[in-house]
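Q: Convert this sequence to structure tokens.
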Amino acid sequence: MAKTTPMMQQYLEIKADHPDAILFFRLGDFYEMFLDDAVVASRILDITLTSRNKGADEEIPLCGIPFHSCQPYIAKLVQHGHKVAICEQVEDPKTAKGIVRREVVRVVSPGLVVDSGTIDPRRNNYLLAVAGRESADAACGLGFVDITTGEFRITELDGLDAVAGEILARDPAEVLLPDGSDGAWLHDRLQVSLAGRTVNRVAEWALSDDRTVQLLGEFFPDGSLEAFGCADLPGARLAAGMLLHYLREARQGAVSHLQPPRTYHCRDYMVLDEFTRRNLELTATLHDGKRHGSLLGVLDRTVTAMGARKLRHWITHPLVDLDRIRARHAAVAELVEESLRRDELRERLDGIHDLERLNGRIAMATGNAKDLVALQVSLQRLPAIKVLLAELQSPLLDRLRDAIDPLDDVVALIGQAIVDDPPFVLREGGLIRAGYHAGLDELRQISREGKGWIARLEQEEKARTGIASLKVRFNRVFGYYIEITRSHLDRVPDDYQRKQTLANAERFITPALKEYEEKVLGAEEKLVEIEYDLFQQVRRQVAAEGERIRAVADCLATLDVLLGLADLAHERDYCLPAMDESTELLIVEGRHPVIEAMSLGERFVANDVRLDTAQNQILIITGPNMAGKSTFMRQVALIVLLAQMGSLVPAKKAKIGLVDRIFTRVGASDNLARGQSTFMVEMTEAANILHHATPRSLIVLDEIGRGTSTFDGISIAWAMAEFLHDHADVAARTLFATHYHELTELAETRERVQNYNVAVKEWNDQIVFLRRIVKGGASHSYGIQVARLAGLPKAVIERAKEVLRNLESGEYEAGAPRLARTAGGRKAPAPQLSLFEPPDPLRQRLAEIDVAVLTPLEALNLLDQLKKELNS
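A:
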């Protein structure tokens, strides 16, 4: 613009520093947006778009919102993927010379939202950073923070598959990538995991170890790289630096509750790759991405938001440390038995607020007086919880009891300082309890006496003037005044000074009233200011105890998860699994934890399974569609996962040798964004399994090779099964469901391959699914019967039978198996008959013969004739 006002010039200069954010520019009681920001914001927020300089050559688009109700508007913009830069007046307009100085005090993006009303209390709001280089073989660094709770963790991961799995597990609201070619490469390789997430870039100049060390020193002056656990992890350090740089640039320096970065290692947890997390529907369903219908939806019986977030972490990061697993099992098992204590503890926890996020808001000076009271009320429940825990014996519960600090000093401070039901607004008084501050009590007395004096003045003036309708009133604009209606103006005394004229009355003031006005109003203004200062002092004192509050919150979250798992186990009759270092997996009458909780109109059928690396390494499972193969295999994987996260399991009995990772290859999907077909995705997942499985792994394969031709598919599935069996470093426990009945021949040449099938009952050309896994291979897949159940036309069903008979007559040899033979001993396959050729004459003649009327001699002659025709 050729010419701008000083205010617009100030706006443009500030906006230039935040080009990627919508700038909320404070003007009095409003946040104003201008130019392109106004156009975008007005459309998203559905508010009126107007303009400055109307009628001029260069109109300036303009829209605005009230500053005191800005949070819903900020939340809506952030939900649409925008950053919002909050620009405040940083000096008093009354004392400012010239244009009021303004600065951006905070930048809000999806990963930096702190308003409790706009984020899900039962899940973390993570800002996650990925650091990796296209040209380097080094591990990728990954880190994440949740500024609402102060959690800050970093790690290094081998390969982008592991990065994708962590992104899916953490489900961040916002992801940071490096700027430049490295960031573009990461974005391309991680695009499936990043889909639907806000992605922002960190400037290349900030991506250095020196910058990281500088930021770590500024945020955590008492720490060191060794203390953070990342001295030998350059990728993890870089991810930490990216996060801290982003916080600094977003003016999020006031995060005293932010914990020093804690380095964690994937070897501490069972590895679950991106495919497995999705296929097992751990936190969301494949169908619609909803929590209901997922494992989390069934397990979550927590009563606090802290516990809900902890449970999600336990589900997505099962343990591989037997001692830690057994400690959780012992605690849950005891709580199952101690039902009375369990119910009492859950009742006590149910009244506790989200201490982690309360602590965060208090530390960031955004918490109000009601937050302090919520903290106090929550902490008051801790002594009773400690008493109840003292009656229990398991070591983990004992440690939790000892670690719960009742924070009596914090409870006492808030109780002495803050009223029981304070207002939301901090600058209107009514926050501080009487007796806490002598000076405040004195001012309150002056204020009360002043108001009593006004009431007495009104009575005295009525008597002096004889005007019964005379009123002494107050408003914020004109202060105190005496109001007299026009019909009584002739009685107004000479010492009354006119202050305001209304349509039906006049307002006056007297010297005495003016003097008292100054005294009372001065006291009230000072009263509000002192209350606010005292509140800030109390908030700072509470914030100083943030680490103690955080530790208590973590203990309560763990207790909440244990109680919820015990409640579920008690209701669903879960058993305590035996865990050891072996490779045995024995489940007796196992059940699917999610499906058995649904109302599906039929009783859930429990099944057994035995897997090991001695005799039962690979189970080939055959049977018709819809019979329950996929349900059975998923339930085995979920039972293992439940056991290693510390839960009891849905079975009559279970013995589980520790599993280092679970792999799944389930269903058909494509990845059109990467140009990958369904079969390519299937093979990519299969390759990942074969390259990373170990003898401690559990593999679930459902329909390998179905995305290509029949013979190609059988060949690939056969070769995969042999590879898993024959390579000692990959010989993982495997459930292999297939419709390729040829694979059952593997059991004849591979000693650790066993055949199982899903039992069905045939009746009048119909099938009944028995849902029972039994020993042996299925003879066929009953696909045509399933098609009939699905409602295919009768003509299609009959033709399918005819085609099937034609295929079966030409494709199979009678006698010994063919696929299991070695290459040197394999016969050439019989020619396959065309689906559309008519039956040959020999078949027609045989079909026309009535064997019942032939004499023995006629039969011999006919057989000799047919033989000659066949050989001719």
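The chain has 30 helices and 27 strands.
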